[in-house]
Design goal:
single chain; Methylamine Dehydrogenase, Chain H; mainly beta; 2 helices; 423 residues; 44% strand; four-stranded antiparallel beta sheet
């Protein structure tokens, strides 16, 4: 016979469990079911939970659902609740634009700062983050703004770099906003100000952390040593930060020429993987909590000119114990390999030499690669070897990854935003 009291106890425990999932951090259960709402997707790791995507390349090529005019910039596309949101330079300045995912119709466009120009490329660098009824954006010079996601109305904005007397990155502020609880976190630069947390509701400063220049990486929320930590890869190296108060828990120096720490850190079974270009290399870190604090050492490392993985600006993808990524040879040189390495050891599983520069995300057992030549390339995510499903030139030169949501890939270049059918 069914025990009602036992059933009620189970219901209460289950409800509390679900509530905890929905209210903890940025990589929530809710986020994982709602499109591609931030930089590197639902869990900020470049992996989509999309399934049923194409297995064979269509003989007539992929269909473009729509393409609309945009502008110059390096911001990828955030997708949620029928809106595709990105940023670009325009005569009105750096604008945030929301497009209807159904047909590309412009829903709203809001200027958040003056036009941004830089010798390494013009336009905003960071990708918007959609959180509930708001979207958070970060401009090339370091203005953080909160907009209403439905109307584009500006709720607040703050020049974060100026407010904390920070030191901006030479090639522009590239930190895509990270949402953690009721805070939004970006980089700024300065004494104890390389990483900054602000209140989502009003932009008021909550805490600052880490010395030095910001670098170009976006912070992530990872489970490290059994607890959630904001892990930030700034110009000086990687640091684990307690989200509640900004306390620095551990750090590992990793200085790269020109401060080009750009890829985001990756959690690998409790370890932390970082990688940088300029012939610097990569390292897998053991981070262990001791009674006296945290102990950090190398599980393995591969640095200098013979490194197995030198991510120039692209964050590698972890799938089933293997890291797939771009290995750039030389000081931002033209030779780039597509490489698969065993995460536990750093052993190279395979390399597609001279693949060329690009970016990648993963979904449905495949790597979805955008190249600087304007191609979408689909490759099997298989550690046994490189197996290409197909490729097609569909857009102009781009550094941005594709954003995958609801059977479509959203890509932008310096003149258009393109929606491609992939299901």
């Amino acid at each position: 016979m069914f025990d009602r009291s036992l059933g009620m106890r189970f219901l209460v425990v289950f409800t509390l469990f679900v509530f905890t999932l929905l209210s903890s951090g940025s990589s929530t259960l809710w986020a994982q079911t709602k499109g591609w709402s931030q930089f590197l997707g639902p869990a900020r790791n470049g992996i989509s939970n999309e399934t049923g995507l194409l297995k064979k390349w269509p003989s007539a090529g992929l269909d473009v659902a729509w393409r609309v005019d945009g502008g110059v910039g390096m911001s990828a596309v955030a997708v949620a609740d029928g809106r595709a949101i990105t940023m670009w330079n325009s005569p009105d300045g750096q604008v945030v634009a929301a497009l209807r995912t159904e047909d590309g119709q412009l829903l709203w466009k809001t200027a958040v700062s003056t036009t941004y120009e830089n010798s390494m490329g013009n336009g905003p660098r960071a990708t918007p983050s959609i959180a509930g009824q708001h979207v958070f954006v970060y401009t090339g010079e370091g203005v953080l703004a909160c907009l209403d996601v439905k109307t584009g109305e500006r709720k607040w904005s703050k020049s974060v770099v100026r407010a904390v007397s920070g030191r901006p990155a030479e090639y522009g502020m590239a930190s895509s906003p990270l949402i953690v609880d009721d805070m939004v976190i970006v980089t700024a630069g300065g004494n104890d100000k390389a990483v900054v947390a602000l209140d989502q509701a009003n932009g008021e400063l909550r805490w600052t952390a880490v010395d030095g220049l910001p670098g170009y990486s976006s912070p992530v929320l990872l489970d490290v040593a059994g607890e959630p930590q904001v892990v930030s890869f700034t110009a000086r190296g990687v640091t684990g930060i307690r989200p509640a108060d900004g306390a620095e828990l551990w750090n590992y120096p990793f200085k790269t020429p020109y401060d080009c720490n750009t890829a985001s850190p990756i959690e690998v079974g409790g370890k932390v993987f970082i990688s940088a270009g300029e012939n610097h290399g990569c390292v897998m870190l053991n981070v262990v909590k001791k009674s006296s604090g945290y102990q950090v050492d190398e599980a393995w490392e591969s640095v200098d000119t013979k490194s197995v993985m030198r991510n120039e600006w692209q964050t590698s993808i972890l799938l089933d114990g293997y890291l797939y990524g771009f290995d750039n040879v030389g000081s931002a040189g033209p030779v780039t390999h597509l490489t698969c390495i065993e995460a536990d050891t750093g052993r190279v599983a395979w390399t597609k030499t001279r693949f060329g520069k690009g970016n990648l995300v993963a979904a449905d057992g495949k790597l979805w690669i955008t190249t600087m030549k304007g191609e979408l390339v689909v490759v099997e995510a298989n550690p046994e070897g490189y197996s290409e499903i197909g490729r097609q030139k569909l857009f102009g030169k781009t550094r941005q990854n594709a954003s995958l949501a609801n059977g479509f890939a959203y890509v932008r270049d310096d003149s258009q935003v393109i929606c491609i059918k992939i299901k």
